């Protein structure tokens, strides 16, 4: 007898589960329920349709119900919502919105793929028709209608992935854009210093950014919205996009008595099975294994959702498939910059008390002698004991996606920094370097583990720095013209061999340069001459990213084409 | 007492060894001998300077002798050649070309980094002054001089990496270009079918290509060169570039009695140490461990040379560093196409009798709904037993470098196709897809290993195909207009569920579509209805690449913007 599977939710995880199930079991009865009018739409593409880069709305619809019905013999029911599950009787009560009626369906298995819903905080004035969230095509249509009504200004509340993508796309449509973010940084999953180049990019694109402040209320003033911030400032806008996070859409699961955590995220085992063996759950509503640290994590992203859907299908079809966990590999383009992350952030490691080392580097994304090389700022986090890669973050103008994927694979497969050093990657001048940034990251991390170098980090350079250390600037003379670190001694690297005896021996020496490359050489030289020498990690560029002082402008932030090494 | 190290050869491996040695041992005496006038130049950039993309010659000089001398305290001697090694006395006899004298230096260690020299076959007329090889800046200058002398036409002999890069750069300078390659394909390290898109790209760029033929002689005709091919054809050119391979420049090593293989490649252990423990050897003259198959391999590439130099330095400095082996990760840009490879090619696996599976796919390099998606053709080779990734090749217009690096890391770390399937990679619409091509490669390979699909490969579709199999084309009607496979039955995939009974049951069915994606769905459906069904791997596009028949044009070859899936 054929199985009957009801899939609740027809986007990433649900659609993947349905298609895979059909391929594995052509006899199964597969019912796909979707509350909205569309299934399998490109939710990650919505901001780009708002900005006009994706021109046609129908490009966002990857598969129509008719497509899927014909191609896979799926029973697709849009505008049908699963309202309740009777786990004892194994039935689902379904609301048919078109016919305005409820009915029941028996199931052998359910796959819950309800996703996550945008948070809409209960602020005064929040129900203004021009205050939007963005989850689906209907939301997209609503935002586009607001834009068409002669909007000139937009306020984006929340500076995460979707917020920044909307900022970019509103600017693309020539709106004046203001961004408000509660935290003192954009892109909350990232470590703060890695977001400075994005902040500078927002400024360069005339975006007004308010960090560390929240909206307290919205008021209507002649059809426009005025947002009052907790700083007291007011921002007027024709249109507001609220992108302050999402919450698991797990009401159905909770009502059915499935195990959820205190935040309402559905608990599943490694087979993506909920606490009821006949009910699987996948995607943005689900708590999964943390791929790096012990315990669970909640990472609502499209890639994991798709793979989880596939795994649930495999298990329902009688195979033994397990999900390895999520690690938060993600990427965002912000105008001409790209930021990407994988694995655990430093702030999480610190908070969890996990021992870690960190290194920074700022190589070109390909060899400097080939035109168009752009610096990328790389942060690598790894275990002090064995060099296991724990996480990485990168920001730059080009080549960011390629390197983050390599770090992502390293994190997932528990590779070490030594493996990165030895990676044999493809090199021709337009694509990289004989020693790729990924190799360099491995070299530097290996040097730290071997004790060949010790770092001082920019956040340690406080007002007492010159009392604790002799700061030694080893850059060339021309570089001093634009920026100089106060109180630092200056001996250019090429002169250091002959002049090192000018350096006082009473204090440890911290060497510094633009990116941390030459300061490492200087450090090695001084250490072998009896000095206690440390290198300023990431150089003065990273110092700028940490302090956001204009003293030391970063080449990624300031569009200087090439980083000196 | 400080060590004295003599490094023979000052480009990739030698320069890396010198710089690393200095960082590890500031007291060591490091003498760098370079026969030519330049050290540490960008040999991979030479073709791009000839084409003008790298405008200034000095951009190719990464470090001048003076730079290195000042910065690292190295004793750099250009135009000095090591002529003999007395291993017993531990001395090197050195020729100083400027002073026209020989002298001796004692050593504690030698690092041999002599590189490889372009082959110059002993053909009649080979010494014509406008017949060039390309190894260094002097060769580059000579080619540029030939170009400046009003050259209109160029002949490139040899269609490997450097040959194709020169073809592109000569075209960039508006020369008429002819390419002659002895083998029936360009890019000899690649499997033949993966080079068809490059061949089509050469044609699209008005390059005349002669495959499977060699030059027999060169004659001078009024200052121009006339090459006579073994086919009898003649090609006249103002300039010839010979890029028919390189040979290890191991004369010094051989004369010193170091172990070499019959092809003259220096034999080293995993520490990069030659048969004399005081002599290390790195780079293009050295035989190294094969990173994938048992035994040794010779892979003259810049990345391995650089890492080997570093490893030799570590060992000389008293550390224990081992080289993991080379796997031939490489990439070439040919006009608007890029081809890349890593690990073992199918032809090598076949020749060595290593069991393997292969799969093909042709996804977009990012999601299709975001503008600019370009198809990439991916070939993945893996072990039938456990799915270990053995090799991969990719050709396409964009995103090739990123995926080959992921496959390269997989090959090196002995990951399996299941690891590829589960890789959590960075996704936003401009950068990839929720299921990246690398994930898809893992899915398809996993399907093959699980027995969910069996493939027929285009090379198996001979004239008797329709006798052995029922060929079933499942594409849409519009696609049949431009190309049709002779003798194939046609049922579009969406109709297959209702019409499958039209398919005869007397023979196995081979399903086919454009790229192998829909044919897989059809296969799954038919298998579950009792048919013995197989899917045409890579679809009709791969069929074109294998047969080079114009019947089934490939979207990579024909610039069709998007592959139907």
Poorly predicted regions of chain A are: 559-565
- DSSP strand content of chain A: 15-25%
Q: Helix- and strand-based class of chain A?
A: alpha/beta
The largest sheet of chain A, given as strand count, sense and whether it forms a barrel, is:
5 strands, parallel
Main interface by residue count:
A-B, 90 and 90 residues
- Oligomeric state of this protein: homodimer
Mean pLDDT of chain A: 94
Separation of termini of chain A? Answer: 68 Å
Count, helices of chain A: 18
Shape of chain A: globular
What fraction, in percent, of the residue positions of chain A are helical? 25-40%
Cross-sheet strand order for the largest sheet of chain A:
3-2-1-7-19
CA radius of gyration of chain A: 27 Å
- By DSSP, the count of extended strands of chain A is 31
Describe the structure.
The structure is a homodimer of 565-residue chains. The first copy, chain A, is of the alpha/beta class and 565 residues long. Chain A is 28% helix and 25% strand. A 5-stranded parallel β-sheet of chain A has the order 3-2-1-7-19, with helices on one face. Chain A has a 5-stranded parallel β-sheet with strand order 9-16-10-11-12, with helices on one face. In chain A, strand 28 (470-473), helix 14 and strand 29 form a beta-alpha-beta unit. In chain A, helix 1 (12-24) packs parallel to helix 8 (302-316). Chains A and B meet through helix 1, helix 3, helix 8, strand 22 and strand 23 of A and helix 1, helix 3, helix 8, strand 22 and strand 23 of B.
